[in-house]
Amino acid sequence: MEKAISRPTATTGHGSIKADMNLDRAMEKGDRGNITQIQGNAHFYETVTAAPLNPWSRTSLQLYMILLVAALNATASGFDGSIFSSINAMDQYKAYFHHTELGSSTGIIFMIYTIGNMVGSLFTGPICDHFGRRAGMMTASVLIVIGAAIQTAAQNDSYLLGGRFILGFGVSIGTSSAPTYALELAPPQWRARVVGYYNTFFYTGSILATGVAYAAAKNNSELAFRLPLGLQLVPPTFIFIGACLIPESPRWLTMKGRKEKAATILAKYHGGGDMDHPMVKLEMREFEQNIELQNTSSVWNYWALVNTHNARWRFAMMACMSVFAQMAGNSVLTYYLPSMYRLVGIQTTEKRLLLTFVNSIVSCAGAVAGSASNDRIGRRTKLWVGSIVLAGLFGGVTGFSSHCEDTTKQVGPALSNGGVAFIFLFGCAYSFVYTPLTATYCAEVLATPTRAKGMGVHVILSNCANLYNTYVTAIALDSIDWRYYLIFVGLNLLYGVVWFIFGVETRGRTLEEMDDVFNAKFPPRAALQKAFMVRQEDGHLQGLEEDDLEGRTTK
């Protein structure tokens, strides 16, 4: 039988002997109730159960406020990414800039933001690796303020394009550095939920953007679109102030040789102030063993992302998530949702803006539920099952849209409402599956020394897909309407197959323990290896190797 990936769990010989005695006693009595099977690393589960962290302690509450600063980067991204889909539907905006709701010129306006994202991503790794994760968030805040100010005051297309380019440039740095920071600071046992909630703050910005746009659209002057654009200045201001006050990532500090400072931060937020807390010792030991050994590349060296078997598998998982999340159909909703409502028979601008606002709330609910389930549902399972569900829901959108193609005929309320319902369901399901995992999974599968650069590449790959979405989608919806949706139905079915066969599970391990998984010949299988725990007389769980249990059961 193949040996479990889980490393030996006891730090002393006495611990192993005690576990063996308890296991033998349980097997002799035929009592397998004391033996627990888990997916992940036994040592990690042993440490978590032996010394649980109080989620309502003073330091835990402080940690939540610190991570809120990082989450505001997602809010800024949600506001910036969603505001233009609503503004693009405003008659005031179209009249002032002489634009149409769909077509080539509109595609360019959306696309320049994506190009700014891609260019900014090239600088994410060097800034975050050399100056720190906080510096990345602060740099992003300054750029977003500059871009938003230019865009708000724009008098013609040149200023509008320039502002959106700088805005996209800054957002890319913020949305790469912030999840990296959150992942590296969050306690391992809370990692999936904490970082999953990070991305749900995208919808905080999206709800604010669509709500403000709906209210502002009632104004007949150019203030209708300038006020929502001006509010883009608010989130980065709070981010900059907050980033000046929060601690640096302990993993980045370890990379820079500042181990004592890293240990102090870990003790405060992962160990309740105890430097001898088992989780603090486990993390510092793994930092020293993994981060220092791998920390050999310069800040501009991206070759380390693909130069080994381990690195190539990590890169492949990150690349799949980056592209699949953007090409699942949600980008069509993000950028052209009001236009999609037109295709299902909703013709008035006011009603389309209202439905866009409501959809943001529904999607937010899906994202919160998805984040809460991250520790209970494995990443791989959520992704492959979710992809199939998304294919079915987008098929529903396609079907209803096909019956509303003839705009010369009055669309019945049943058809119109059915189309809207499937759009809402797709947005909610997408938010449940991808929103909590996109940044989380990409950051989890990347090694610490290459995480910031890898997250920069994640943004580049995401925006390569978005270049297609923002430019081609505008033309395709204008030319072939609902038939364009069939592409996303097929793609989601393909994604389900890819995630089922090749998806690497990350649940149940620290970031450093993922190195064992990716060193395996076929990481997807290695990640699904089971570990076993035996309950001690004092109620604590002791980790065991899988082949130890196998040997006893076959005697």
Automatic annotation (TrEMBL):
GO terms for cellular component: membrane. It is a multi-pass membrane protein. The keyword Transmembrane applies. Keywords: Membrane, Transmembrane, Transmembrane helix, Transport. InterPro entries: MFS_dom, MFS_sugar_transport-like, MFS_Sugar_Transporters, MFS_trans_sf, Sugar/inositol_transpt. Its main location: membrane. Residues 66-507 form the Major facilitator superfamily (MFS) profile domain. The keyword Transmembrane applies. It is found in: Membrane. One of its GO terms (molecular function) is carbohydrate:proton symporter activity. Coiled coil: none annotated. It comes from the Eukaryota. The chain crosses the membrane at residues 63-87, 107-128, 135-153, 165-183, 195-217, 223-246, 315-333, 353-371, 383-400, 420-443, 455-476, 482-504. PANTHER family: LACTOSE PERMEASE, PUTATIVE (AFU_ORTHOLOGUE AFUA_6G01860)-RELATED (PTHR48022:SF79), PLASTIDIC GLUCOSE TRANSPORTER 4 (PTHR48022). Belongs to the major facilitator superfamily. Sugar transporter (TC 2.A.1.1) family. This is Major facilitator superfamily (MFS) profile domain-containing protein. It comes from Metarhizium rileyi (strain RCEF 4871). The lineage of its organism: Eukaryota, Fungi, Dikarya, Ascomycota, Pezizomycotina.
